[in-house]
Amino acid sequence: MLGGVRVLAVEQYGAGPFATQFLSDMGAEVIKIENPGDGGDMARGVGPHWHEGLPETARSVFYQSLNRGKKSLTLNLNRPEGRAVFRRLAARADAVTSNMRGDVPAKLGITYESLAGVNPRIVCAHLTGYGREGERAKWPGYDYLMQAEAGYFSVTGEPGSAPARAGLSLIDFMTGAVCSMALLAGLLEARSRGIGRDIDVSLFDLALYNLNYIGHWYLNNQAVTGRLPRSAHASLTPCQSYRTKDGWIFIMCNKEKFWGVLCDCIAKPEWKTDPRFVDFKARLAHRDLITELLDEALSARGTDEWLEVFAAKVPSSPIYDVKQALDNPWVANSDRIQHIPVQGGADLHLLASPIRYAGRPASGPAPALGAHTDDLLADAGIGPDEAARLRAAGVI
Predict the structure, then answer these.
(1) Mode of pairing for the β-strands spanning 29-34 and 71-74
(2) Nearest to residue 336, comparing CAs of 324, 323, 347, 327?
């Protein structure tokens, strides 16, 4: 879908590469711009897990998770000569993405103001910690810091336990996804108007925006939502984990009709008309009693047995660890895992893009550092002699 779109990605670590991974998976040519003097994207050195069949600078499974199908060009943007080369590359690109500290894009010359002279249609998307303006522009920002300050620790985990973050880098990933969406909107505008722009997305703004309804409950009703037992929903019941004969199951009766269906499935039809359970408001008032009653009823069978009973009737799920989640036949026997051949060893196994469409392109592993430098420089009109001088000077 994005064949012919070229993106220069001044990116590292998690959020920025996650954003451009969506673009690469949809066929865009994503070119990682990496500093040759510091080893490039820091993710290349993140362990503890490696794939030994890949080139030395591309063996980190963490790095592979975020960069498949991209290209790598080494270029030192801290040098005037490097910024001059970048401008030549930008003249032939559709977009620039970055996930640097907020004050860095202007210094490196990767903003629309810096590049419009060579390409007025270029779209520059900046993913930062706290934005490019204001007192926090120079602050480094990371996912867990955002979760802490935006209130996530106070709504995660069991009541009475220590404050806890979400188990995944949700802010990095969601900010990346929003950045890619915003970039595509910018490209649509640029193609219709012939003029690009800067676009800004920050980890902090995304974390705050994600509070959504519990944030709005406070802003409008001064209601402070806290942690609830068993990962329960703040207002809908039953919607939490329950005990079974051999473990746990998560049930989400998030529409009124599902309560009645659940009651029939567990042979408790009388609960449908019990005034204590007749609607969401009543069930919320009797959440603890419902938990006790459902624990008792569901303990009659194992989790897998209940999942068969509830299938396509009651929204429910097993509670898995990572191994169980990926060994699940629904996953393992599908195309949700991509098996990428590696010339030097065993296949590389990566989670496939969630975006499905006919003709979705296959992608190779993430590139070794600088693997495409010479070809991309030649495409920008930089010949072998000039490239040799730049390489000798440490610019590429």
Answers:
(1) parallel
(2) 327
Residue written as tokens 């220069």?
Answer: 8
Residue among 126, 216, 233, 286 flagged as catalytic: 233
**pLDDT lower than 70: segments of the chain:** none
Q: 199-228 as b/e, with b when 16 or more CB fall inside 10 Å?
A: bbbbbbbbbeebbeebeebeeeeeeebebb
For the chain, the helix, strand and coil percentages under 3-state DSSP, each to the nearest 5: 40, 15, 45
Buried b or exposed e, range 278-299, using 16+ CB within 10 angstroms = eebeebeebbeebbebbeebbe
Report the candidate in 83, 90, 87 with the shortest Cα–Cα distance to residue 390. Answer: 83
pLDDT tens digits, 116-127: 999 999 999 999
Question: Given the DSSP bridges, would you call strands 123-128 and 95-98 parallel, antiparallel or unpaired?
Answer: parallel
Residue type, position 249, single letter: I
Per-residue model confidence (pLDDT) at position 345: 86
Cα–Cα distance for residue pair 9/29, rounded to 1 Å: 10
Q: Are 372 and 72 in contact (CB under 8 A)?
A: yes
Q: 166-222 pLDDT, tens per residue?
A: 999 999 999 999 999 999 999 999 999 999 999 999 999 999 999 999 999 999 999
Using CA atoms, how far residue 384 sits from 20, 71, 107, 164, 313, in Å, is 29, 19, 28, 54, 65
349 is catalytic: no
Q: Which residues is 239 bridged to in the sheet?
A: 252
Please state, in angstroms and as integers, the Cα–Cα distance from residue 74 to each residue in 44, 278, 369, following that order.
14, 64, 7
Alpha-carbon distances, residue 219 vs 203, 225, 288 (angstroms): 21, 12, 28
Which residue type, as a one-letter code, is found at position 75? L
Q: What element of type H or E holds 221?
A: helix 212-221
The CA R_g of the chain, rounded to the nearest whole Å, is: 25
CA distance 41 to 10: 9
Kindly report the number of other CB atoms within 10 A of residue 159's CB atom.
Answer: 8
Tokens of 390: 């730049």
